Amino acid sequence: MRLLGAKESIILFILILAQGFEYSRTCKCDQQYFCNCASNHLQQVPKVPANALGLDLSFNQIESININDLSPYSELKTLNLHKNKLSFIHKEAFKSQCNLKVLDLSLNNLNKLFSSWFHELKSLQHLNLVGNPYSTLGPASIFQSLVNLRTLQFGSPSLRVVHKNGLDGLTHLDEMTFIGSNLRSYESGSLKAARPIGSVSLSLQNLFQNDPELVSKVLQDVSHPETLLTIKDATLRTNTSTEPFKAAKEGGTKSLSFQNVTTSDEAITSLLQVMNGSPLSYIGLTDVHLIGQGWWQKASYTHYENLYTAYIRNLDIQGFFEFSSMMQLGFLLMHLYKVSVINGTVFVIPQQTTPLLKNLEYLDLSQNLLSDLTIEPTLFTGLGSYQNLNTLNVSQNILKSLGLMSRLVTNLKRLIYLDLSHNSFVSMPEKCSWPATLRFLNLSSTKLRTMTACLPSTLTVLDLSENDLTAFIQRFPQLTTLILTGNRFMKLPQGELFPRLHMLLIQRNALRMFNESSLRSFTNLQYLEAGNNNFVCSCEFVSFFKQDVDRFITLLDDRCNYVCDTPFTLRGDAIESVRLSVFECYMIPAVSVLCSVIIIVLGLIAVTCHKLHVIWYLQMTKAWIQAKRKPAVGRPSEELRYDAFVSYSQHDAEWVEEILVPELESSQPSFALCLHKRDFRPGRWIVDNIIDSIEKSHRTLFVLSEHFVTSEWCRYELDFSHFRIVDEHNDSAVLVLLEPIKKETIPKRFCKLRKIMNSRTYLEWPEDEEKRGEFWSNLRAALQRD
Q: Where would you find the membrane-spanning parts of this chain (predicted)?
């Protein structure tokens, strides 16, 4: 039993480790305590840190949440269970989530909604229940405990019945999305909140056509002058489908928007008739498919004096070229103040239509097909057209002439904001004319390569980002914000050109550096965004960036965006983390000091070598290497051609040649002497001659005198003889003192010779002639071969 218990303990330990490994593999928790466990095929709530603030469990296969699955995570503020297989949630599953603010249960398999789920969720602000197969909402109030709820999304194609009191208690609701495409029964007052909801989105699809009375009940509950009403995923093609909007009119709806809707000119005409006289001030069409030929005559008598804003985006007109002129909508156009037609394949506004836009203040025609040929009639300013226009956006069209655009907008006497971005101007003319009121100009992504004095000097904000500009030459006395991101500037523009500039954005250029001088040239610059450039991390720039830059400006972007491009060893490193050595920062002084140190060291080495006779040892090493090539011991007698090599000073040559040589060479037995003057081989290096002669001699006879110890060549001969004594361990040297000399005059490094002079009797040339016979006898004996 004890062994079995041990096995069970091991298995339990392995399972715990496996569970921990599974958590680390499936969930990633960041520094903000948000744990991402999405798309990991999880079948139950995984274990995450108890202090987690966010938990994303979307796109998994979790089928149920039990009472204890979430209890450890009392700090959770966000819980995302979107797109799982949830069919069961325990009534107390969220009991510990009193801090939860966002809960997403959309696209699951919840057949019923229970108010007990939400009893403890007092802090919940956003709830999404869309796409679950519950068929009934109510009659009991489900959301009454969600006193702080601000966003509610609910409903699905499965929803059939909605009872009253569904929104009781929701006193702070700002936004609601309701999906009821297959709704069969709706009790009036079911979607009526305690106070007006800021935005209501309804997806009722074919109910406008199939059950307009039910739709009228829904619209009656949600319509209010303070509510933006959005109709989504609907088909409005007949007069019948627009009848429910009478309820919206009666509710005083001022803002009405259609999204992902298919409609026709007939239905729009009917809608205008139904809403006639309403306080409608905003109408929006997004992702709308329009069918027909553009006949609006039946609505021409309607009154929309309060309609100030029309927003149209992604409008697809079937048979666009069959549509009649917009002149028939003049009764609407003449009241508009703001018009946006974005991505609507607009290539021209007929010149006859523009006079109807006399009240227009805002016009957005971005993402269309306007060209240099069609922009002129579109911006026709005759007959009072555009007399109040202050904002014009024609970005993302196919305009190519900046000069033409400047000429056309000159007549817009109240124009303040002009967006010409994402066109293909490429170049600027030398001179341009602009309205004196223009303050904001956007020329980003227009492929500009050079800059001229074309731009208006009245600007306060100028956007030239994402072009190919390298220099700035024009003065802007009123400019406060300049955006140069994504160009090819290698340095900051001259600050003198912008005396009032407060903000400069110059990211993603080719900046090498900036310093105190370049920043001081901007009199009023307060904010700079210059990350992601090719910074040269010199000592001066790194020091300025880390210590002083904050004294001059505030960096808007993160400091981690400021990285080194050169030198190569620092490429990619954040400037904030760079640490440069003294040698890198003070190259010239460091090199000077280093060179001085090297010279001093070399001098010390030279002095040391002189004191320690290093040169001599090197010479002896060379001689030793050469001598080692020949046998030093047991040399055959025939190789010793001489009995003695005579080493003497040139000043003692007379004594050697006239006394020593005749005496020894003519005696019986005679001695063969080697003299450098007589026996050295002509043309051969003298050192080689010395070494060869000593090697071929049985003895080396040194004629010592004061002149000998000062002779350079005698020193060579003495040096090699010293080497031979040391290497061959013999006493081949014979010393003859021609005149008395002090032993100290012999170099101290020749310790062997000094030892010989101290341990053996050497021969002295006697001044007394009677003693010379004895001298010669002793010399012959010393030279005699063993």
A: 586-607
**What pLDDT score does 4 carry?**
44
> Is residue 729 scored above 60 in pLDDT?
no
pLDDT digits (tens, 9 = 90+) for 328-373: 777 888 889 999 999 988 898 888 888 888 899 999 999 999 999 9
Q: What is the pLDDT of residue 748?
A: 62
Q: Are 575 and 511 in contact (CB under 8 A)?
A: no
504: which strand partners? Answer: 482, 528
Spatial distance between the Cα atoms of 220 and 246, rounded to a whole number of angstroms: 9
d(CA 702, CA 686): 18
In angstroms, the Cα distances linking 282 to 225, 227, 278, 746 are 11, 11, 11, 118
Where in the sequence of the chain do the CATH 3.40.50.10140 domains occur?
A: 644-782
pLDDT in tens, 32-59: 899 999 999 999 999 999 999 999 999 9
Closest CA to 340 of 369, 370, 315, 362: 362
Give me the DSSP letters along 738-768.
SS---GGGS-TT-HHHHHHHHHS--EE--SS
Phi/psi at 574 (5° precision): -65, 135
Q: Please, which residues have CB within 8 angstroms of residue 217's CB and are 6 or more apart in sequence? A: 186, 188, 247
144, 168 in Cβ contact below 8 A?
yes
Strand pairing report for 54-56 and 64-65:
unpaired
CATH superfamily of 644-782: Toll/interleukin-1 receptor homology (TIR) domain (3.40.50.10140)
pLDDT at 93 over 60: yes
Is residue 503 classed as helix, strand or coil in its secondary structure?
A: strand
Strands of the 161-162 sheet, one edge to the other: 136-137, 161-162, 185-186
Cα separations (Å) of 93 from 76, 98, 110?
13, 12, 14
Dist CA 79 CA 352 (whole Å): 56
Q: Are strands 34-36 and 535-536 parallel, antiparallel or unpaired?
A: unpaired
785's tokens: 């071969």
Every domain range in the chain assigned CATH 3.80.10: 196-336
Q: How far apart are CA 654 and CA 658, in angstroms?
A: 6
> Are residues 644 and 676 in contact, defined by beta-carbon separation less than 8 angstroms?
no
Share of the chain above pLDDT 90, in %: 53
Angle between helix axes 712-728 and 686-695 (nearest 10 degrees) is 40
Q: Does residue 632 carry a pLDDT above 60?
A: no
State which amino acid sits at residue 581.
S
Question: Could you tell me if 754 and 746 are in contact, meaning their C-beta atoms sit under 8 angstroms apart?
Answer: yes
- Report the alpha-carbon distance of residue 377 to residue 353 in Å, rounded: 10
Judged against a pLDDT cut of 60, whether residue 511 lies above it is answered with yes
What are the φ and ψ backbone dihedral angles of 155, each rounded to 5 degrees? 100, 165
Architecture of domain 196-336: Alpha-Beta Horseshoe (3.80)
Q: Spell out the alpha helix ranges (H) of 632-747.
A: 653-655, 661-665, 676-679, 686-695, 712-728
pTM of the model: 0.72
C-alpha 112/C-alpha 132 separation (Å) is 9
Mean pLDDT of 758-762: 65
Alpha helices by DSSP H, 586-681: 587-612, 614-628, 653-655, 661-665, 676-679
User: Scanning the structure block, which residue is given the tokens 């960041």?
Assistant: 30
What does the pLDDT read at residue 521?
A: 94
Strand ranges, E, within 454-572: 461-463, 481-483, 503-505, 527-529, 535-536, 554-555, 564-566
Is residue 651 left, alpha or beta, with left meaning phi > 0 and alpha meaning psi from -120 to 50?
alpha
The residue-averaged pLDDT of 120-142 equals 92
